[in-house]
Design goal:
Lambda Exonuclease, Chain A; globular; three-stranded mixed sheet; alpha/beta; binds iron/sulfur cluster; 8 strands
């Protein structure tokens, strides 16, 4: 990676806690993570979301006479079983030492009925073809670079709608009542800017999928968010150059793998100042 370039995903991380950027940039090793059932559920949800276009394309899925969504549920179960069986192979390095039973438990917490009901609802509202156009990837995790922006990123998918390419992010947490959470909105804006630089087009919106609910949110790419991206890029660069940021008051330390380093650095700093 070229020096000075930041990742679009670092924008969301910065908004969670700027110190995450600092610790990640200081470590040569793979990023530290707490690997628990919740984390595994997120990985499985993402893999499952990447297969939804295959599920929706199946005969019978979304049909008006399939009131119980039997066809979608059957296909989602098949995909979920395959992903559960293959997860440790797919993420071999990251999940080394993880027990298969933990993966099974994580998969069990995914509510297939919620996802299948939402698939049926979208088919009812916009039709199967329009839904397939929205969610069928033309590329998955395709890395985009822009030297002009000083940003790189790999949106979960790129989709082609009305001849244009749009970025698409899969999120595995809770969904907001409407729109997208701020970090998701800014990350999709950064991805949209990368798409524009790469393909020479204007991107008016991107899509964020809240995968637990198969909730698709179109996010308009706004001028003030574009400005914010450039401002955050500069702040992230300074942190990656070695400037330790302050710890935000509402930092999510409880779920952070850097708690120990963070406390040590804090007590060292308080010794000197
Ligand atoms: S321990 Fe808390 S303050 Fe430190 S990096 Fe993690 S989330 Fe941020």
């Amino acid at each position: 990676m070229k020096t000075g370039r930041i990742l679009a995903s670092e924008i969301a991380a910065y908004l969670r806690c700027p110190r995450l950027i600092y610790f990640r940039s200081q470590s040569e090793d793979a990023e530290q993570r707490i690997i628990d059932t919740k984390y595994l559920t997120r990985l499985i949800l993402k893999e499952l979301a990447l297969t939804h276009h295959c599920t929706v394309a199946r005969d019978g899925v979304g049909d008006a006479d399939d009131a119980d969504n039997t066809a979608a549920i059957k296909q989602l179960r098949t995909e979920l079983k395959r992903i559960t069986d293959e997860l440790l192979v797919l993420y071999r390095a990251e999940l080394s030492g993880v027990d298969q039973q933990m993966v099974v438990d994580a998969a069990d917490s995914i509510d297939i009925d919620v996802i299948s009901a939402q698939i049926a609802e979208y088919v009812r509202i916009i039709g199967k073809d329009a839904l397939l156009t929205k969610i069928t990837p033309c590329a998955v995790e395709h890395t985009l670079y822009s030297d002009a922006l000083g940003i790189a990123g790999a949106p979960d998918k790129l989709v082609r709608i009305n001849g244009g390419i749009l970025p698409y992010l899969i999120r595995t947490g809770e969904k907001p009542d409407q729109g997208a959470w701020k970090p998701d909105r800014l990350q999709i804006t950064a991805c949209a800017m990368l798409v524009e630089e790469t393909f020479g087009q204007t991107v008016k919106y991107g899509i964020v999928e809240y995968a637990r609910f198969f909730e698709l949110r179109e996010v308009q790419i706004r001028l003030k968010d574009r400005r914010k991206i450039l401002e955050l890029r500069n702040r992230i660069r300074r942190i990656k150059d070695g400037k330790m940021p302050d710890r935000p008051r509402d930092a999510p330390c409880e779920f952070c793998a850097y708690t120990e380093n963070c406390v040590t650095q804090r007590s060292l700093a308080s010794k000197f100042f």
